[in-house]
Batch of 4 targets.
Target 1
Amino acid sequence: MATEYLSPLDLAFWRMESADHPMHLGALAVFRTPGPPGPGDGDAAERAAALLTARCAAVPGLRRRIRDVLLPLGAAAWSPDPGFDPARHVFLVRTDLRCPHEAAGPLMARPLDRELPPWEAHVLAGPDPDSFAVLFKFHHALADGLGALALAAALFDEVPGPRAPVRPVPGQRGGSVLSRLPGVLAARVQGVGQALEIGAAMAREGLPLGVPAALTAGPAGAGSRTVAGLALDLDEVNLIRKGAGGTVNDVLITLVAGALRRWLAGRGDPEPLGAGPRALIPVSRRRGPRDGEGAGNRLSGYLLRLPLAEPDPLRRLDRVRVGMDRNKDAGPARGAGAVALLADHVHPLGHRLGGPLVAQAARLLYDILVTSVPLPGLTFSLGGSRVHEVYPLAPLARGQSLAVAVSTYKGTVHYGLVADAAAVPDLAALTGALRAELDTLVREVS
């Protein structure tokens, strides 16, 4: 069997990780039970844990671990875990916390075991017998947001109807080496030019100046995490979009900008000035949730200045729309936000030696992560219990205090917030600010 090496970007995510700054994605799915369990069935959380334990062994992508290889120097590859044990990945957690987000914070802070396939599922059983939650953790080297969705969906109940076909991964072509040589050389030349262009765009952005102190985290809070979530009505978001223009994503980013402005004011921070913090907006290069399943990360990104200094909410939305349109016109392979593409131009040994340095330099590249994970319109369930809410959770880069992820499921927008617990002890106030900002924009367009 041919060795399957980690792609350059997957390898970068693997090498960047540290004990205080784990590089896993998360998704907190909240389930509602259809009714009381039958005699001898156990509770819904127990059934869910048993099903996840039984099903994960049948998903090839969840049985693979990462191992260093001798050649190429610094590279790593996927290999089957000969001692795969579902009990080391699926956990039933009993908690007296009514809000599953509170239980998710410490679990998100805990790194995955790098000797095992890099994923976990924590079934959170709280005091409410009619609901439970599952916190899925997937290392970023294993999958991006859409790839993680495909892996998690394989553990849920079978969805009625035909499944979408898995598209081939771009770049896997036949033919001899000689027949492909001209194309390979042309791609290398084009890639060098692209790398220089991205580097120049990063230099033009300059150093992070005037960033609110609340968005930065020092070493004192390393390793601590708090998680919060907020569910908003998608109809209200669409009302804003229709009344003020832009896309749904423009509105969702604008809500983050306005909420940050409110939150900072509530903390007594100085009035925001300048161009605003730089938000990294990841962009998937997949065509759908089953495109290249198991093929690792296929990401680029946009860099957007959040207009926190703009006091008018509709003008904030307009500035976000203009900035995103400019990014889209340039495309995801250009600009400072396309920094992820630079990983393709680094030798594996460079990733191994420079990974910790790159992790520490994240603060120089962007100030806050704002990512969107699109979910299909299917109804997911586990043991008959339906998914009621889905909160995506993003990794927190070194030196940054906050990461925002958002998804839309069944007519509801779910914001998942991950913060450094020491730097942001008032994360609940930020979720309240998001709600208030939505209400304000709805009034403005009504």
Target 2
Amino acid sequence: MKHPDMYRGQEVVVLGLAKSGVQVAKVLHERGAIVTVNDKKERDQSPEASELEALGISVICGGHPEGLIHGGVALIVKNPGIPYSAPPVQHAIQLGIEIVTEVEVAYRLCAAPMIGITGSNGKTTTTTWVGQMLEAAGMNPIVAGNIGTPLCQAAQEATEANWMVVELSSFQLKGTKTFRPKVGCLLNIAETHLDYHGNMEDYIESKVKLFANQLESDTAVLNWDDPFCRELVPYLKGGLLPFSMTEELVEGVYVSPVFIPDLEDDLKRTIIYRDVDGQKIAIADVDSIGLPGRFNIENALAASAIAIAAGADPNKLADVLSSFRGVEHRLEYVMIKDGATYYNNSKATNSKATTMALTSFRQPVVLIAGGLDRGSDYMELLPVLSGRVKALVALGETKDKLALVAEMAGLKHIVTVDNGDSAAAVLQAAVQEASALADEGDVVLLSPACASWDMFTSYEERGRIFKEAVHNL
């Protein structure tokens, strides 16, 4: 796309009235574009409409009217969650109108160098951790996007003295053209969001757009333990700083001694940064990390590598690694009740995320799982269910699929909770069932392996209701 200032006097349609849509509409309107914002929600469900109309921005709610998209429209800015199969998007494609997401607009506005972080799992934790590391290093970070200030708003406020730290989804990246992060990190790839992308090829292509425009002076931070990430190396245009839990790297951030997959032990381990000259710097002891679970060790490695790539001193990361207590809904401690410990991991919206959560515990686990059916058979969970889970309480559209996998895994206690009067009532019933199955010393874990949209508006709502149900036991 052109710079936002170059849309002065031209028609722009913003699809979607979420936070990002509101901010991008304001940005383009301030720069003289003729902006129309469209949302399929009814007007009484769109409180943001009045704010935009007061500025002179046209807002159309309640559907996509005929004539909204026409040959005179210069640009479509699409809410990331709106699929490309949606009628107005398809019409724009047919007319050859450029379609982008807010990330692209924000990048064109931003004076600060950007750090882009994506992956199937661990994005929010890693992004938040990096922000704290750069803050401790005096590098003036702004954490924005999905987990903070809308990106367009932050981009306008940023200066060259800041670092913009941005969590990026495949939905956002798919709608980028020239976006170029100074540091880009791909954490991992797992099968997810296929209902949106249609296939893994499109999902992967969207993720790797993170690196498409990088220059020799930029850095790609890659998970060396993920086979797909390794395959990207020949296509990178900039530098590479990998991280690994299972290999001592020639250059990069790793754990020493390395972890042997599927083998539990109590060895003392250290996070090491080895620079381009081969010099080793001990960053922190693994045991000092403030979050439980091997996957959070991986997030710690990624965050350390990103911060170092941005210029942070590796000798000054230890305090942030030890003091960080995580993000809500990501393996979040809730309470101990009758000797059982309850954790909220509502953000686990795919099987890999749930597998990583389950492997964080050595205690028997009563698992609460289930949600939106995106077509997965959940067989990926079979090994971890048989090894770590004593009981399953399943709910949502996928409850029968998950119960079948649990039966195959040999679980003796499998409960399915049928849809009741409300989604909240179903989840509350699931918590009560799990509590009845838990003994002293057990873990009760909400880790759904599914998106929430069959029952809840978001994983955040699902997690909050779970926590309320636990506290009300």
Target 3
Amino acid sequence: MPDALDNRPAAATHRRAAALWLTLAATGGAARPIRTSGDHPSRVVVPVPPGTSPDVAARLLAEGLSRRHGRPLAVDNRAGADGAVGAAAFARARPGEALFFGMADLLTVAPLAGDPLPYDPAADFAPVSTAATDFFVLSVPSAMPARTLDAFVAHARARPPGELSWAGPARTAAYPAFRAFLRSAGLEMAFVPYRGGPQALLDLAEGRIQAVVSTLAAALGAARGGGKVRMLATAARARAPAAPELPTAAEAGFPGFWVEGLLGLFGWRGMPEAARDSLSEQAREVLADPAVAGRFAAAGMLARGSTPAAFAAEIAEHRARWAALAREFGVGPPPG
């Protein structure tokens, strides 16, 4: 999803992510490659550019795993084609050569677009552990009178259909989720495509568009940087540690508006079950460390590990939800 809004933090968040990256780079120099039951992955493929929230999460987890094994687990950024470049690079790697850290959307949403994929979403990725929830939020211009989600709905209902516009990351779960929210609220808003988040948030700040769905990391930088963007609610099941004052959509009276960025660690096709279980246990130990959880929270995410079976079940839940919504709304605007 390198072109998606949620992977383009605003300037303030870029600075925090860059500082975090430098810290990780500085602390990882004395490490050695991770070992898992006879296999020796020395890198983790990440399908997004450095500085994005999945990249930051991958580096935090890789650092913790490296410390436990005394060798570095290098982060290998392979961005492009909405994450497909990195996913394909991992699928082509020799078994045991690499791990994969990425967004479940690559396995649940990308296949729904109908385009040929250079990887097999059902077979090439062995779920190891969840790593984090990447929060999505709805933001509006501060000049808009609406200060809550229900006030935004009332404001939009008072305008002619299609007069207001919104932006969000197409080809991710956020697109059908917000389309479903608009329908349930009885709203019609025009979708405006952007190649990246910064320009959309800049246009939001200037009132050229009226709503943006983005990750919390991106919205925090815009909302706290110049005061021209107001966050209304998260679309997650729980409040975000980085913005505890922000209600969830369910708390605001719209429980159907739910979408979370599911980030996790994957092994290779045919990864031995014992190796997967061992690595999952190690990942859960890293993610349960309060210091690590605090660094995830500072980056706008919620650290959380799981067993391989629980991760696979969560992926299946996401797949079913987005498949149902994609039949109605697609995963992006129609071509042309």
Target 4
Amino acid sequence: MTAADPAQGPIHAFAIGCSAGGLNALHAILPELPEGFPAPVVVVAHLGANDGGNMAAALRRDCRLPVVEAEERLPAQAGTVYIAPPDYHLLMEADHTFSLSADAKVLNARPSIDVFMESAAEAWGRSLAAILLTGANADGAAGMAAVKANGGLCIVQDPDGATAPEMPDAAIALGAAHWIAQPDRIAFLMISLCRGRGGGFPE
């Protein structure tokens, strides 16, 4: 399902947000990305204090791309998957390096998907694609709206079949979805978008 396509132009970075059921959705997407994928992929998931390393390790076993935890002042480099560390908000700076914040939780979450996507929208503008997956609250909807307002592209997991549809439903209700897709289609879309935008959902 598609909304109006945004203007043409390649995507240079991806931001992915998820919560309940997110690891399964990520396993349907990230292992399909090839070595040398020409963009950084940043994952912000609602994690317990001890879960960040577990998620990175679980994804690392199956991914062809390196999977690392984002750190203060670390530059976001193409061909790498970055996981937001637990109990910190992750932000993207104008020079495309990460920063961490211990500010109060947003929608009862730290890291907050909204916080990262809003900063990433400012940093990358039209060259950012944001992906919102399964989750049990509305975190991420405002961030997706910010990405769209800054000219970026927004992909939302189809709520049908999502472990927790509340998160994608909230983004769709805000009109913050250019594409709505099942996870097993999203990796192909990501690869296509690195080559150029527009033209509808790949068949």
